[in-house]
Write a structure and sequence with these properties.
5-stranded mixed sheet, elongated, 6 helices
Length: 272
């Protein structure tokens, strides 16, 4: 019986150690992805700033006017694609609130889509989040095509998570109409080979794409940071469990040794 009890902690220790290796690997992958995406956010923000200045110049050649919005608002929501992120998707979906009934929801993230379905949230369009941040710009093209495929212009809002000061925070931003489209011209109109309206429309679309890509990158970083936090907690739990199992294995081994010594001593005394 003691030998069987000794084998049981040993096998559990081996399984816990293998689980620890998996957790460390997941932590490393999430950390690498988060670092890469953070560097890309800086590049996208610089690109967006250039587009913002160009859009302001293009609008100088046009009288200020409000965009003609003819379609329902589009609410682009970035949730988690995979698990082990705690309440990541739940917090994002909580932020939607009643707006989900007044807008067409475009939900990104397979895990979040499953949770939204469980809540009975009506989703107009959904897609899986790319596994690598390098695929996000092209993916945002797809998302914008889906938004405007309904026909007509519409307000576009985005809800996503950001990781700030080691904590997740839900951010909500209006992407379209652009603020510069309603502001009075601040400078003289530039020389251009395209009609001012066509140039402004093209720049506005590029700027919208840049802002959506920025939101997607922030959501990508936040998901991987949340996974790192969850894996850190799991790693701590694994270390505690491993320490308890190793202590148990030592006790079982000591009991086995003690039992063998008693058996040998008893046999020796019986011979006498």
């Amino acid at each position: 019986m003691l030998r069987m009890a000794e084998a049981d902690p040993a096998s559990r220790i081996d399984g816990i150690r293998q689980l620890g290796n998996v957790v460390r690997a997941m932590t490393g992958i999430a950390g690498a992805r988060a670092r890469t995406a953070r560097a890309q956010i800086t590049a996208v923000e610089g690109y967006a700033a250039i587009l913002d200045a160009a859009f302001a110049q293009a609008m100088a050649g046009l009288p200020p006017q409000a965009a003609k919005l003819t379609a329902r608002p589009a609410l682009v929501v970035f949730c988690a694609e995979q698990g082990f992120v705690g309440g990541f998707s739940e917090r994002v979906l909580d932020e939607i609130g009643a707006d989900g009934a007044d807008a067409d929801v475009f939900l990104i993230g397979s895990r979040g889509a499953a949770i939204a379905a469980g809540r009975g949230l009506l989703v107009h369009w959904s897609a899986a989040m790319p596994s690598r941040s390098a695929g996000l710009p092209k993916f945002c093209d797809r998302a914008l095509e889906a938004v405007f495929a309904r026909g007509g212009l519409c307000p576009v809002l985005v809800v996503h998570m950001i990781w700030k000061h080691g904590q997740p925070h839900v951010q909500r931003r209006a992407l379209f109409p652009l603020v510069g489209a309603l502001a009075p011209p601040a400078q003289a109109a530039p020389l251009a080979n395209l009609p001012a309206a066509d140039l402004a429309a093209a720049l506005a679309l590029d700027q919208l794409h840049a802002m959506l890509t920025r939101a997607a990158l922030h959501a990508f970083v936040a998901e991987n940071e949340a996974r790192m936090a969850a894996m850190s907690a799991a790693s701590h739990q694994i270390e505690q469990e491993l320490a308890l199992l190793e202590a148990q294995a030592r006790r079982v081994r000591q009991q086995a040794i003690t039992a063998e010594i008693i058996e040998i001593a008893t046999g020796a005394m019986a011979k006498r």
